[in-house]
Amino acid sequence: MSLALTQFKLDIDQDGIAHLIWDIPGKSMNVFIEKTLDELDQVIDYVVKTDAIKGCLIRSGKADSFSGGADIEMINHLIDQAQNAQKSPQQVQAVLKLVEDASRMSRLYRKLETCGKIFAMAINGICVGGAFELALACHYRVVSDGPNTKVGLPEIKIGIFPGAGGTQRVPRLAPTADALLMMLKGELLPSETALKHNLVHAVVPKDQIVTKAKELILSAGSAVQPWDRESFKLPSGPVYSKTGMMIWPMASALCRKDTYDNYPAARALLQAVYEGLQVSIDLGLKIESRLFASILKTTAAKSMVRSLFVSTQALNKGARRPSTVVKSNLKKIGVVGTGFMGAGIAAVSAMAGLTVVMIDRTVELAEKGRDTAAATIGSRYKKSPSASEDQLAATNRLIPTDDYAALADCDLIIEAVFEDPDLKAKTLAAIEEHKNPEAILASNTSTLPISGLAQTLKAKSEFLGIHFFSPVEKMRLVELIKGKDTSDRALAIGFDYSRMINKTPIIVNDARGFFANRCVLNYILEGHLMLAEGIPPAMIENAARMAGMPVGPLSLSDEIALDLIHRIIRATQAALGATAINPVQAEIISTMVETHQRFGRKNGKGFYDYTPGAPKRLWTSLSQFQKIHLEPDQLDIDQIKFRLLATQALEAARTMDEKIVEDPREADIGAILGFGFAPFTGGPLSMIDGMGVDLFNHKCDALKALYGERFNVPKLLRDMETRKSHFYN
Fold this sequence. Notes:
Elements: E1 8-12, E2 17-22, H1 34-49, E3 55-60, E4 65-67, H2 72-85, H3 91-102, H4 104-113, E5 118-123, E6 126-128, H5 130-137, E7 140-144, E8 150-152, H6 166-173, H7 176-185, E9 188-190, H8 191-196, E10 202-204, H9 209-219, H10 242-259, H11 264-276, H12 281-296, H13 299-316, E11 332-336, H14 340-351, E12 355-359, H15 363-381, H16 387-396, E13 398-401, E14 412-415, H17 421-434, E15 440-443, H18 450-453, E16 463-468, E17 477-482, H19 488-500, E18 504-509, H20 516-533, H21 537-547, H22 553-560, H23 562-576, H24 583-595, E19 608-609, E20 617-618, H25 637-657, H26 664-675, H27 684-691, H28 693-707, H29 715-723
Parallel strand pairs: 2-3, 3-5, 4-6, 5-7, 6-8, 7-10, 11-12, 11-14, 12-13, 14-15, 15-16, 17-18
Antiparallel strand pairs: 1-2, 8-9, 16-17, 19-20
Helix pairs in contact: 1-4, 2-3, 2-13, 3-12, 4-5, 6-7, 10-11, 11-12, 13-26, 14-15, 15-16, 20-22, 20-25, 21-25, 23-24, 25-27, 27-28
């Protein structure tokens, strides 16, 4: 039997061990495509039929990773097939074909583990998704002890769940509670944790993984998995046992508490494990495959895979980066203004390998900012085996000073002073006077139009906005704000910098509030107006969580800071007039800030009271803002949930209508990463597509009749309804 391999290389050593090296040409990381499965199928047959082969050792030909799992196109094909199956005239046959295709990987892995020859895997670097499910099907797994080696099944994060045996093998190896937590959270486990959970057999230095895996093959007695032996017992005992009854009711309750049943994949994952552990592995795999196929048909899976996988990867790879500009090679940046945001920007930049000049009014203030940045760096590296070395190197790249002349050799300078137009103008002028003419200048502003800030600059084309979100070290989004004079070169360098610090950038045309803040301020406004209407504050907050938001609008107000919201309202009124603000909201915030000195979490008093060491609690005096008190039982919870999402989705559609955002992918990703818009929807524009624009418009028209013009549907959505079109074709 001859092999024609392009995805793999196969060598047989003197001890009769076949070394299968996965090394896809032209790819920085191995991913599964149909051809990969075809070749793996051939290899299994070859290993079985070749008497001289005692076992097979699988490893990666890539230096720093094993595999990132399935390729985008492979998952997309299954999603499309699932969506089309529901519309097919021969629906039964189409669904059966879907189950067969969706279970191909699972059936192949089962073939591998029951073929009669021993398979082992040597893992260094990332091994996730279908690749880790392949590892679980192998009889032995050896991983390197490096900090970059992680294994796991993160599928739940993109709206699906492990469909190639993960839900059956993980809980047959690890205790049920640990297995469920790992898969429901989509956690990636470091080597030692994987060993503790019995998911791998050995953890050794990188240069020993192949030797150790080979040793296990040669010393093994038989190629039979634990679950295929008569003596096998589940790690946590039977489902219907004392231990099982302590696990399963709690698991179901916690799943519902965390997801509010918005994520069908989470419920299906629970079902697959629960039912699968009561039957044989073969029947369990069939249960998993059928549930997996059913999840592929859901709107949540389609939307989440598109936004959180396909679109995110496309944007990170430069789908919106100006293509005519050569990739930049930044070495040194400046950060002017070393408060909370400036220190965060400096920290993530230093951790990315950049030298950072930190400038403030005095050396003392700059050093204080450096200390804040150093603390952030310390928290990042505290769990790393090479913490002291990496932390010291990053901290040493921070250079505090009050001398603007230190900016002369910086490639990029980011102004991060207080959100005041006059102060920013003065600071930008000082930077421009001292910077290299080739350097790009950026402002970290959350609301101020970039074109206005550029008026006093000489080189307007080399200026853009880079809007970071707080806290900088945790938030993955940045908005690159394009002023009317911003050049493609400035945008490209802003993009390259964003990717260097591991952020996902979206390009936003200049306007007050840009994209994210426009949407999130609408969300906050709706919460404030609901409070004034008499809706119980706890109901507002809980309805928001039920709708899929990470926190309620009152809690988010406290996190942003009520005094900042107060300043934004006043600045908006000063710039655009009284009609640009909502007087009800303005009165609530003014009373909170000016009368009661309640500024939010930062001073322990806002819509919530914050007592150290105790859970936050809604302020008992919020009733002063309610002329009437509505009874919860008389309120439509689904309408409240829709209001809180629709107000954001409408604003996202308006930014598309006004050409503030030009690509629906950026609107959806910006909403999810920037302010946590309900991820199960795929983002606000995906939510509209998923509902159907006609239904969305109809529901917004009903809200407009009840609550006013803020629910007015923009022209773009009216036109889409007429044309029966979508944001995504």
